[in-house]
Amino acid sequence: MKINKINLLINTIKYLKFKQIFYRIFYSFKFKIFQNFNRSIDSVQTLKFNQFLIHSNFSFSNNSFTFLNRTKKFNKINWNFLDYGKLWNYNLNYFSYLDSIDKKQGLTLINDYIHFYNQNKNNIEPYPTSLRLMNWIKFLSKNNINDSFINDTIASDSEYLYNNIEYHLMGNHILENSFSLLFCSYYLKSEKLYFRSRKILLSQLREQILPDGAHFELSTMYHQILVIRLLDCINLISENKFCDTDNFLLDFLISKASSMIGWLDSISYKNNYVPLLNDSAQCQMYDNQEIINYAKRLGIGKNKLKLNESGYRKWLKGKAEILIDIGQLGASYIPGHAHADTFNFEYFFQSKPIIIDPGISTYEDYNIRNLERSTLFHNTISVDKKSSSEIWDFFKVANRAKIIKLEEKSNFIKASHDGYKKNNIMHTRVFKFISNDFIIEDLIDSHKIKYDLQSSLHFHPDCELSFFDNTIRVNDEIIINLYGHKKLQLKEYEYPVGFNLRVKSKKLVSKIGIKSKITISYEN
Questions:
Q1: What is the rounded (10 degree) CA torsion for 375, 380, 385, 388?
Q2: What percent of the chain has pLDDT over 90?
Q3: How many CB atoms lie within 10 A of CB 8?
Q4: Orientation angle between helical segments 148-163 and 126-142, nearest 10 degrees
Q5: Which pLDDT belongs to residue 23?
């Protein structure tokens, strides 16, 4: 067991950048200074903003907080409360709820937090610090508050953030760090913070936003979050003057935001539903139209590009909409939000979800987390109930499936991946659309056929299913025929409705041989 874990660790580390490894070592030895700067500032800049986009996925009332479908009422707020897990505590520390409460309540919470963590420094980290600073600055500016005690705390925390950029993680974390530094630079009138933020943003957005507009971690949830954060920064720069307003940075951010909004529009369905790709949870998703409307208020449109580098393909054929995954496993050096979902697909009929990617419900429960990231939880083929990419721990991936052959024509995709090469297996899947038939053909190229080859199809909870021989009828509208499939079973699975919330739904599980086919049809 120990040898296997060592192998997993080696096969995870080999994908990391040298910079990540260096900073993991550096930060483990470095004495992180938290609130000991005792930095005071003479003045701050009261900022103006266009109206922000407000999410209603949380609530606060009388010291009762609701995040991630869990509620906790405090007599005295414990800002280090971890009984509901680290992500819940992060949300408590983000202060996103300041948007929905009045000036007096907000000031009470901020001051309570400052007095609390001056004595309890165990739970300060760059990521929640980044979001908290942005939300504090928004709140203070909106309510025209100029409080020297709070301002000194912001100055100290921005210094901490400046010295603890998450280079060991990279990805969305380093973007949030730099977005926050940009807000702090304007608020505190600090050129030092501004130029650190500018340098990171120009470098990282060039790398992290793919040519087709996708964020390279390929989570639709984090993609939406980062689009909104980009729009917030555009809002900041457009409405306020500092450091000889940098038109190059503003134009650059607008360009990236426009492409990211275009990708969201391309990946979404006609009913505006955003697929829950990789780590995405329903309760955290925004309505796409709200994001588009926010962008319009800032004078930003969408640059709709053809889906390409992200590895997703979208087909709109008559009454059917189909999403296909033929891409690599996200960013190779930060796959913490990636799933073992190569060759996964979704099928919508007349804007109703039929076969879906269920998304996730937890970052805290290891067994559920491991299942929801696994190949078995997606609409593709698994070998011996193992995943095509070696997901492990909570946010790690060792060896991962690679697309090694790809052929595309009109209404036709053929691709192969090597995720089971240790088993001497090559999985080739063909997607094609003929008339009203969506066809998926699987070929397992192996010298041995003793492996347990399992096909899975996950249905949305609203689907009504009837089952006869090798035929499934869905809502009396869709007919699914399976060829080369044996031991078909309709099983219950836990469909994530959001974090910490699941409902019963059905999945079709079957055994296949080296050749099999699924045909999904509808009648005119």
A1: -50
A2: 82
A3: 18
A4: 150
A5: 86
